[in-house]
Design brief:
Layout lengths: L1 H5 L15 H13 L3 H11 L5 E2 L4 E2 L2 H15 L3 H15 L1 E2 L5 E3 L5 E3 H11 L1 H6 L2 H11 L3 E10 L2 E9 L7 E7 L2 E12 L7 E7 L11 E4 H4 L4
Parallel strand pairs: 2-3
Antiparallel strand pairs: 1-2, 4-5, 6-7, 6-11, 7-10, 8-9, 8-11, 9-10
Helix pairs in contact: 2-3, 2-4, 3-5, 4-5, 4-6, 5-6, 5-8, 6-8
């Protein structure tokens, strides 16, 4: 675990200079990975929650939280059981906190600039089986992550008054009309109205959205949608 933590250049991750402390991120993760009891785990968590990945007193989350999420999940899975509660608490806090203006997004390999909350949620969904196995707290964290949905377009066809978009939905898009950010090749376009036409069947992620007042040519395959409200979260 220590090699994986030390491989990250925490100083290079952007964050508000008055609040983000890269050394706390690195030290806190190292200490949590080595914690052998609840007191040590809590002390490590206070470093991470006091400027490492979040600043709990001011309710702010930093881009470093996205990088730290898979490491925290590894710690919960591979290290001392005392670290698990601290990890789950930190991840839930990171999802709940708002980022500072200018530090609200993280670049991803698919050219999206995902809101921090969506980046954390993506990593949590990748470890769904492990989190479910932790019981109520793990399932609660996954339910929280599901509200930060993501939709990847595969195919679009004209529909009355708009477009039917078929693709892969991660998370849960609630009933009703929603605004979304559409990410494609580094550009972000706001879609003012979409609804869930057909939810995924059990065991599948395939879904259909109806995008109001947009034609198929405006919704290219490969575009990725995030909830607009996630992009609007600013501390």
């Amino acid at each position: 675990m220590l090699d994986e933590i030390d491989a990250v250049d925490w100083d290079s991750i952007p964050g508000h200079p008055d609040w983000y402390e890269p050394d706390r991120a690195a030290r806190g993760l190292r200490a949590l990975s080595e914690a052998a009891n609840l007191v040590q785990a809590a002390e490590a968590g206070s470093q991470l929650g006091g400027g490492g990945i979040v600043h709990g007193h001011s309710g702010a989350v930093f881009p470093a939280a996205v990088v730290a999420t898979p490491l925290l999940l590894d710690i919960a899975q591979r290290c001392h059981p005392a670290a698990q509660d601290t990890v789950l608490g930190l991840l839930d806090e990171a999802l709940s906190c708002y980022p500072h203006v200018g530090y609200t997004r993280v670049a991803a390999p698919d050219s999206t600039a995902a809101p921090i909350c969506c980046g954390i949620a993506h990593h949590l969904r990748d470890r769904a089986d492990f989190l479910v196995g932790l019981g109520k707290r793990g399932r609660s964290l996954l339910a929280h992550a599901a509200t930060h949905w993501r939709f990847e377009m595969r195919e679009c066809v004209a529909d009355s008054g708009g477009t039917a978009a078929f693709g892969v939905l991660a998370g849960c898009l609630p009933d009703g009309v929603h605004a979304a950010e559409m990410h494609l090749a580094g550009a972000i376009t706001v879609l003012s109205g979409l609804t869930l036409e057909y939810p995924p069947a059990k065991g599948s992620l395939e879904a259909c959205l109806r995008v109001i007042a947009r034609h198929p040519g405006e919704l290219p395959p490969g575009a990725v949608l995030f909830a607009a409200e996630c992009g609007d979260r600013v501390h």
